[in-house]
Design brief:
Pfam families: Hexapep, Mac. By secondary structure, the protein is an alpha/beta fold. It is built from four helices and 19 strands. Helices cover 22% and strands 28% of the residues.
C-alpha cells in the first residue's frame, strides 16, 4: 500500500492532512520563516536555502519566499527568485538554468478534484511543472499545474499560464498566449 506522500509524488489523489506530510510542510515553513528574516548574514541565508531545497545550490532569492516542501523543487544553475514568490510543490517543479522569476510569481502544482465529495474528504493531487533553461517569468505571473514553459521564452507580467508554452516565444495575458517569436 502506498503512503500518502508516495501518492502525492505520483500525481494520485492523496490526503494532505497525513501526519508525515503535515510535518514536512511545517519543517519547510519554519525554514522559510527563518529565511524570510531580513537580518540574515549571507552564509546563514545560503545554509537555509540549501536546507530548504535539500541540495547545495547557487540559487539566489530575495525574501520573502514561500513553498510547501522545497524538496520537490529541482533547480538548475543561476536561478533567481525575486520578492514574494510562492511555489506549491506537491508535485515536482523542475526549473532549468538561468531562469529569472519576477516578484510575486506563483508556480502551482497543487490541484483539487472537480468532484465536491472528494474535495470534502480532503483529497487533492499535483501535476508537475517544468520551466526550461533561460526563461524569464514576469512579475505577478501564475504558472498553473501541468504547464511546461520552453527554453528561452518570456512570460509577460501578470500572465496566467494554463497551457504549455513553446520555446523561444513571448507569451502574455490571461489566459497566456504566444504573441511572437523572440529566439
Amino acid at each position: 500500500m502506498k503512503s500518502e506522500k508516495e501518492k502525492m509524488l505520483a500525481g494520485e489523489l492523496y490526503d494532505a492532512s497525513d501526519p508525515q506530510l503535515v510535518a514536512e510542510r511545517a519543517a519547510a515553513q519554519k525554514i522559510c520563516s527563518n529565511l524570510n528574516c531580513q537580518t540574515l548574514e549571507s552564509d546563514q541565508k545560503r545554509s537555509l536555502i540549501n536546507e530548504l531545497f535539500g541540495v547545495d545550490t547557487d540559487i539566489s532569492l530575495t525574501p520573502p519566499f514561500y513553498c510547501d516542501y522545497g524538496r520537490n523543487i529541482r533547480l538548475g544553475r543561476r536561478v533567481y527568485f525575486n520578492f514574494n514568490c510562492v511555489v506549491l510543490d506537491v508535485a515536482e517543479v523542475s526549473i532549468g538554468d538561468n531562469v529569472l522569476v519576477g516578484p510575486g510569481v506563483q508556480i502551482l502544482t497543487a490541484s483539487h478534484p472537480l468532484d465536491s465529495t472528494l474535495r470534502r474528504q480532503g483529497q487533492e493531487f499535483g501535476i508537475p511543472v517544468v520551466i526550461e533553461n533561460d526563461v524569464w517569468i514576469g512579475a505577478g505571473a501564475i504558472i498553473c499545474p501541468g504547464v511546461t514553459i520552453g527554453a528561452k521564452s518570456v512570460i509577460g507580467a501578470g500572465s496566467v499560464v494554463t497551457k504549455n508554452i513553446g520555446s523561444g516565444v513571448l507569451a502574455v495575458g490571461n489566459p497566456c498566449k504566444v504573441i511572437r517569436d523572440i529566439a
